[in-house]
Amino acid sequence: MARRFALGLCAFLLACGAQAAANPALLGDKEAFIADLMSQMTLDEKIGQLRLISIGPDMPREKIAKEIAAGRIGGTFNSVVHVDNRMMQDAAARKSRLRIPLFFAYDVVHGHRTIFPIGLGLASSWDMGAIERAARVSAIEAAADSLDMTFAPMVDISRDPRWGRTSEGYGEDPYLVSRIAQATVQGYQGPSPARADSIMASVKHFALYGAVEGGRDYNVVDMSPLRMYQDYLPPYRAAIDAGAGGVMVALNSINGIPASANTWLLQDLLRKDWGFRGIAISDHGAITELVRHGVAHDNREAARLAIKAGVDMSMADSLYLQELPGLVKSGEVTVAEIDRSVRNVLGAKYDMGLFHDPYLRIGAAADDPPDLYAESRMHRTDAREIARKSMVLLENRNRALPLDRAATVALVGPLADSPLDMMGSWSAAGKSTSSVTLRQGMEEAMRGQGRLLYARGANITDDARIVDYLNFLNWDHKEVFQDPRPPADMIAEAVRIARQADVIVAAVGESRGMSHESSSRTRLDIPASQRALLHALKATGKPLVLVLMNGRPLDLQWESANADALLETWYSGTEGGHAIADVVFGDYNPAGKLPISFPRSIGQIPTYYNHPRVGRPFVEGKPGNYTSQYFEEKNGPLYPFGYGLSYTDFTVSEVSLSSARMERGGRLAARATVANVGGRPGETVVQLYIRDEAASVVRPVKELRDFQRISLAPGESRVIQFDIDEEDLKFFNARLEHVAEPGAFEIQIGLDSQAVRSQRFELQ
Ligand code: BGC
């Protein structure tokens, strides 16, 4: 590694010749190096560094190169081709006056060429090692494709599944999402973002984007400071504490001020309170949108607000380039304000190792991969292992799963053989032709043994308006395949094969575009075309196994009552078909747990488990009148946070505490014995929740504070210990101080957020 670094540096300096603006003698000292470079920059060159452009497939390369060489572009995104990036880097690092390198970014969210499960799927593994590995592999692949930065992790807490971007995030819980934020940043950046096989993480969307009103994308966020600090901000903070070099600023407004113009957010909180020293990048076109938010009269005012608030780089527009020179001239923006952002941009480039070697990840032309999609560039073993861990078994009546591979199986549903949907949205440079579908996976698993019959059975939806919308969202390819046959014929074909089979496996849910940016829904059900198929399959009387593919919690009331087994597979990525087959045939015993509650109906939203307490709580089994509830249906979620079954059975003993008291600054141990009382080896996630009995502000009914994913052989039991200290008892009080108050706490240990055993203690 060190050798590659040194060679790269020599090559770069040689190419730059004697006039290199960057002073190599100062390279060891970041501050001095950047100060020296900035002292040589004109105002226009500084402003040029603040511009991040998207490279579209049809953009004139020569024009871009000219702009870069003129010092009017600081970085690009969406360009993933060595030849293009080398050409652009040549323009920057060899032809521009000061030879300041560009950086190349991309949305590497859950994989790059190898696609891993979507965020909700990764979170369902509760396996930090696996999640870190997915990010590390993504970084290795992205860096090998000449990329320096990813716009990830996406750690927006989401409690409203109408929001299509729920799929991208890691669920509803601040603690779990914070742990994942940390693991992903470590994975992307590795030991250092300056390594040739690392990419810089830019955590997004700062902040609170997951709380858009009504789950409608881009909508406003209006939130109390307590909720913000307690629930929504911790994951961003965790990513920053883990060393994320970048932050992407959210598109939404927060309590009346758009994030992109929010000085409190970007300076007081992010930089002063949290000590962030990296780069803050706007979201796509967000600065111009300040005009549409109605806080700026025109682009000029928008640029002024954003730069003053602390948005360092403007993404996908020329606003800074056009407006900042005039704003500086008139004195409305100071050179010091421009310098602050330039320092952050150059600092990020320094941290990515680009001043040491602008070609660190681009490499030499002679080394360009002959085939970008070559199998040798993929990480299929990791993808299969991690995908298996992401699956959640929601129902398994009469042990309908696992299936006997010598049986005759009728595989139906629009998602059974859809390679594009397997990848989920934001699939970076993944190619659908690399995806293993469920049909392929099951065929391989059954080869030479049972019989797999297949019929599509239904389209994702018969609503042409929805199909048009999904195709329109993804303008560069046909997103949704519509079988032209009449729905009744497709169902009849599916029923015919179902009658010949021992068991039906139906792969149903949403197409990937239904759980995407700008894909907010007003309903959470499986579309009517697929429901009609399921009803017809149910009527055959054959065992019915549903393999769900979706990017948000769905309303599964009918399915949970009528299917024999429900396996939530999310969008499981390149190796999804193999991974699902592993679970379906019992080669792998599922252990995933929900990172987000599944409501019974859309009217219950939000359904998150860690709800603040109320004065008239609804208590199951007690009369419901004048309590906080809905009277039309059963209360509480259909499937709670933390829930997931296994092919074996586990029990949890009573909880024992090392002491009934905790001194200030002290700690105690909570223990419970978990036993595998079933007939198979299996894994489960033991979860620790804490309930604060009384405090100076209203506290949640319980909060996840720790967890352990464990593996037990049949008949084996193990004492699981959680160490609890004062930090675990802290919360934000009315003055937003992070404190632990004396009094009683309840420790709860269980295998989901509802089925817990508990024990109390007092903090002195
Ligand atoms: C999304 C971001 C993404 C950016 C660049 C925006 O529309 O909100 O999450 O990083 O585009 O692709």
TrEMBL record:
Q: Which residues form the signal peptide?
A: 1-20
Membrane-spanning parts: none
- Where is it located? Periplasm
* Record Gene3D superfamilies: Glycoside hydrolase family 3 C-terminal domain (3.40.50.1700), Glycoside hydrolase, family 3, N-terminal domain (3.20.20.300), Immunoglobulins (2.60.40.10)
Q: Which GO terms describe its biological process?
A: glucan catabolic process
* PROSITE patterns per record: PROKAR_LIPOPROTEIN (PS51257)
- UniProt keyword NAD present: no
- List, alphabetically, the GO terms of the cellular component aspect: periplasmic space
What GO annotations for molecular function exist for this entry? beta-glucosidase activity
Q: Does the entry feature the keyword Glycosyltransferase, yes or no? A: no
Sequence ranges assigned to domain Fibronectin type III-like in this UniProt record? 684-753
| One Pfam family cited in the UniProt record for this chain | Glyco_hydro_3_C
Q: Which reaction does it catalyse?
A: Hydrolysis of terminal, non-reducing beta-D-glucosyl residues with release of beta-D-glucose
Task: Please state the Enzyme Commission number of this protein.
Answer: 3.2.1.21
Its keywords, alphabetically, are: Glycosidase, Hydrolase, Periplasm, Signal
**Similarity field:** Belongs to the glycosyl hydrolase 3 family.
Q: Which PANTHER family match?
A: LYSOSOMAL BETA GLUCOSIDASE, PERIPLASMIC BETA-GLUCOSIDASE-RELATED
Name-wise, this protein is Periplasmic beta-glucosidase
Q: What is the lineage of its organism?
A: Bacteria, Pseudomonadati, Pseudomonadota, Betaproteobacteria, Burkholderiales
